[in-house]
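Researcher: Batch entry, complex prediction.
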Amino acid sequence: MAEWGRTTLEMFVEELQRPVRLDESFDRRVMVKVRRLYAAQRPRGVRAVFAAIAGVSRRPAWAAALAASVVAVASVGIFRARALQPNAGATRLEPVTFVYVNKTARSVSVVGDFNNWGVGDTALVATNHQGVWSVKAPVATGLHRYAFVVDGKEWVADPSALRAPSDDFGLPSSMLVVEDASK
Amino acid sequence: MLGLAGMESSDAELVTRVLHGDVNAYGALVSRYRDRYARYAVHMLGNREDAEEALQDAFTRAYRSLARCEEPERFGAWLFRILVNRCRTSGARRVRRGQTFVHDEGALLNASEEHPAEQTMWREEIERAVGELSADQREAFLLKYVEELGYDEMSEITGVGVSALKMRVMRACDRLRILLKEVHSG
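Model: Structure tokens for the complex:
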């Protein structure tokens, strides 16, 4: 250290110590996730969300849309509109393949109540050069909300699946019903 | 999110409020540590996008585990440890993907707006030199000289012994000296 010119070190460090400022949207993104976690931890809030979803699910249009979503979320016979019941007593995990098409995305991950809305926890992999991203993940049987996060920032609902009713956070999300394949 | 009152509260007060259900109090903690820790993440990971992702993940993980923060008055240090670990994971993943270290384009852009061309070139040289260090050396150098931590603190955060950290810092300095000399002589 002694022979390295101290001035050079000081200049070097001084430059590295310059503040790095993030824009205000960073705070908003963090707090959206934090509020989602908070809501997921509140029993009353969770029940309210499920009640809202279950109420809407009786509409015939939702049943048709739900069937269409099989194309985007191919899995082991998990979708049946009649089964829109909250996760009561459901602990079995079923493999679910999430598919999202985006030719310009550099990264895609799926977030949902099944992974505590953890961005990056469940990353999709580009399966070819046509912008098709997919991942197979274990999801507990029952009713779930989920969304895709593109490039770590853009939060999008699954365009091929049922759109979930808007929540307190104003971010789009889709609905997923996972049924017990053994039944 | 929170008014000035929230910003004036101590870390311990804010942590207590969050644990009692005042989720908005967490926003004050995010604002308090965002920029300071963004600096470490940007230099450690080499680009703003990965740094923001790592920092966002660190804040989220800290919130999930807040009840396990044994010293709420040292929330910042606890959060920093989470971030350092997160940066290690992210850096290792990047190596596995075969990506190279890239410049923090945002910082370079800011530098070019605020400083003359020579300053921008100097900044580029520094970014490149830091990126040439091994992850272990870069981590030790940044913690020691940029974050100005003592070796005991560094050891606590990284789980690496003091002697090993001193060696890493020394080797980082040696490497930087060579790299910068190459730039100036070239």
